[in-house]
Amino acid sequence: MDKRAFQFSPVQRYIDRIHEELLDLNDGAVADYIPELTRADPSWLGIAMVTVDGHVYQVGDSRQSFTIQSISKAITYGLALEDRGLDQVLSKVGVEPSGEAFNSISLEPDTGRPMNPMINAGAIATTGLIEGKPDAPPMQRILETFGRYTGRPMEIDETVYRSESDTGHRNRAIAHLLFGHGILDRTPEEVVDLYFRQCSILVTARDLAMIGACLANNGVNPVTGVVALQARYVEKVLSVMSTCGMYDFSGGWIYNVGMPAKSGVGGGIMAVLPGQFGLGVFSPRLDAKGNSVRGIEACKRLSKDFSLHLFHVARSTSATVMRQVYDCAKRTSRRRRNAAELAVLAAQGHRIRVYELQGELLFGSAESVGVEILSELARVDYLVLDLKRVIGTDQASILVLSELCMRIADAGKRLFFTDSKNLYRFRKHLQGNAYRGPEPGPLHFDDTDHAVEWCENQLIGEADTTGVDTSVADLSHQYLCAAMTGDELEALRQAGREHEIKAGSRIFNAGDCAESMFFIFSGEVEVWIDTGAGHHLRLTSLGPGMVFGEVALVNRKRRTANVSAVTDTRCLELRFDDIPEALRVKMLMSMASHFANKIERDTQLIQQLA
Ligand code: DON
Q1: 102 in Cβ contact with 318 (< 8 Å)
Q2: Residue of 199, 201, 203, 269 to mutate, ligand 1, most atoms within 8 A of C-beta
Q3: Predicted model pTM
Q4: What's phi and psi for 425, nearest 5 deg?
Q5: Distance CA 279, CA 292 (A)
Q6: Which atom of ligand 1 approaches the CA of 103 most closely?
Q7: Taking residues 101-106, what's their average pLDDT?
Q8: Which of helix, strand or coil describes residue 274?
């Protein structure tokens, strides 16, 4: 991605403007209860945003280091959940907002359990749950975890640590209270020291945005691809950030800004818009509640101007994810069909329906897609759900789609999900759940074209077009030979060379010289192109009575596609130079009228599809 693109992106220009405007906002004061924090320059202001695609936008003092302070609590809460699991952590720390200041002794009267992990008491209890490993004491594990979030090695500001440790008597008292209530299973001094160290880890606004982006990206660092937090705990961390992350301003914050966030007395605010981006703002001037004044303002404006509020309803319905629906009476697979077969498909093709879906499939959209499909089920026997443009599914949409699959199988109909190779969780779920219908199963076909061909073959098979064996043909079935007499056909046979080609063999390659054409007597060949990365795109499939390589008879241009035998194939190769002149003319005439009909049919199709 060309880095210059970001400079001119609307997002970069927007945060540049916000930064400019907020330099005039000078309310609040630098924290002073930890003496070392007073050394911060109150005019510092840095804003950064990192998207789940790993795009980084930043402005101002976004690379200025400062201590993370309480923002560290969100990360250590996630680590404690990974170490101890939900039940044990919940037995030690609650999830209820205290509505009080960050350093309030908000403990439940009977258990002494801190109300939530975002206030100091809860954070100290949480830090006390982080385990040491044989090769990594707790502090090393905390630093390594922070490094997975930020994508770089982290270090502690020893002077700030020392300063807080020398003055952190209230936190020490809280730790002793917690120890007294049996909340800590290590000594209060050991745990509070660990807490002071985690609060003194040096970060930048860019780091905060990266941390937020990891949480927005289901726990994965969007730049390094490293898992910073197990996906199952992301929603837990975001939940306590939403309800408690801004302390006794959490209500006003979620009301006005609408993003899970966490602030720190070092002047940082880390906010998250799940599925979209992480935001980091740094400005040391704090309001009375200990939140960065400019930080709050920057987040408020971004949320308002871009409608980023979490509860800003974005409808997720079939209308948003249903890209296209069509049946196969008009739009058939790329397999070339003879006239009898085309007639069957024109008459019966409506029983095959293709639904092209797109975007993120969520409960709402999957549910309404399901309703739409079931409402049409009486008229359809074969359904293909093309997932090529679906970028993701969530647990709910996976359950809805797999239930839909079972229901359709129970109704004796066939459903295929195609182009789903990137939807691992969906495929795993479907493969894990006992599909009760006949083979091929719902995930059998990689692409819609082959799935539709299979459905067409069922309709053609049912129709038994001619009652005669169409698996073998002779030259008289060839459209190029339509105007020829028996003798002329014999002359042509004599001029050609018959081949028995094994299934899987390549007959010719794109780029080869074109000196002949091939009439298929039996078997099947596929005409395809290489779309890179080993992907093949089928252009068409041909069977008995069909010809390939004939277009070069007109212009002798090199082959434009590859042709391979799908099954053992018997065909007649006819070199252009061996065709008697009179027959060549007849062939060219037949070809011209064939393509004229095809153009007419395609034009009608485009008009109908438009
Ligand atoms: O424990 C303390 O007081 C500090 N280390 C962290 C407090 C903090 O960041 C509160 N946030 N607004």
Answers
A1: no
A2: 199
A3: 0.67
A4: -60, -40
A5: 14
A6: 3
A7: 91
A8: coil
